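We modelled each protein-ligand pair independently. The example shown here corresponds to the L-homoserine entry; the chain sequence is given first, followed by the ligand as SMILES.
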Amino acid sequence: MVDTAKARTTRAFAPASIGNVSLGFDILGAALEPIDATLLGDWVEVKDADTFSLSVDGRFADRLPPGTKNNIVTRCFEFFQQALISHNKPSLSVKMHLHKALPIGSGLGSSASSIVAAFYALNDHAGRPFDEDTLLVMMGELEGQISGSVHYDNVAPSYLGGMTLMTGQQRTVCSQLPVFDDWYWVACYSGLSVSTAAARDILPRQYELSTTLTFGRQIGVFVHALHSGDKALAASVMQDVIAEKHRKTLLPKFDEARAYSMSQNALGFGISGSGPTVFAVTNKLDDAKRIQTWLNEHYIQNEDGFSHICRIDTAGTRILA
Ligand SMILES: Nc1ncnc2c1ncn2[C@@H]1O[C@H](COP(=O)(O)OP(=O)(O)OP(=O)(O)O)[C@@H](O)[C@H]1O
Ligand SMILES: N[C@@H](CCO)C(=O)O
């Protein structure tokens, strides 16, 4: 029996993220940190208890599928327990709580944020039996179960922070890239919900050779530009040749939002993950504020929508007091 007076609690926060970042479909992601210090992401608490339970709260908790079993956090717990058992480690006797701050199907890495916070909190509570790569592979597996395909471009930046490039390897699953700390990222969620699986289904199965050559060139040039500090060169290749023209049909006012942002000196503009959140990159706060105001007035479709001016979050998932 757990002595409730001595029950330990571990709480982890995992930030929102932009998957793809326009030029790196499925292989490039970035974590977001609002400049007004809003905690934009989910947090998960793990507490010693005799029997497992999951409670939820937060602005978007009522949009979660009903029932503990249907929440991805419960599946993370079951997966983690199984991993402990198969590595001959002591199993956990805990209950969990999810604070759901990110809207579901938003393009802000909502399921990834829950998954990453859950695994991080469980691992920390268990005395950190699993290393970074092992945890990341677990996170990718669970993200794949829920969105229909394994992609790390939300879980990796949310976990590790910064901008992450997936390597395709099981060890050193991703590399962290340098970021320009004077760039602002205006992220605007329209309030609609777009399922990642559906937004993947509308993409072509095959692409023209010229498109694949452009995709390869862009990612190579972008990584070089980040490492050499060439901001203009980096911005010049932030164009989506894979998903945008297909997915923007799901996003009312997308073309107008892009046109306005580019007219206000945006360095880049694109769909965050599978949408409907869009992002604009600027190097001046005034430009970011004008773009944010326009997006608030024209891109947001209902009362669920919101926007934030962000920097890249370099801390990633962290323990909350
Ligand atoms: N804790 C959770 N957080 C988010 N989605 C969850 C959670 N638990 C279960 N789900 C379900 O997982 C599915 C997630 O779908 P999807 O991958 O499209 O959304 P998402 O991860 O919120 O999207 P995005 O990455 O674009 O923010 C939804 O059907 C949702 O109901
Ligand atoms: N890379 C994924 C991210 C989903 O958030 C996609 O675009 O489908």
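The pocket of L-homoserine (ligand 2) is lined by residues 19-20, 25-26, 107, 151, 153-154, 196, 199-200, 243, 273-274 (CB under 6 Å).
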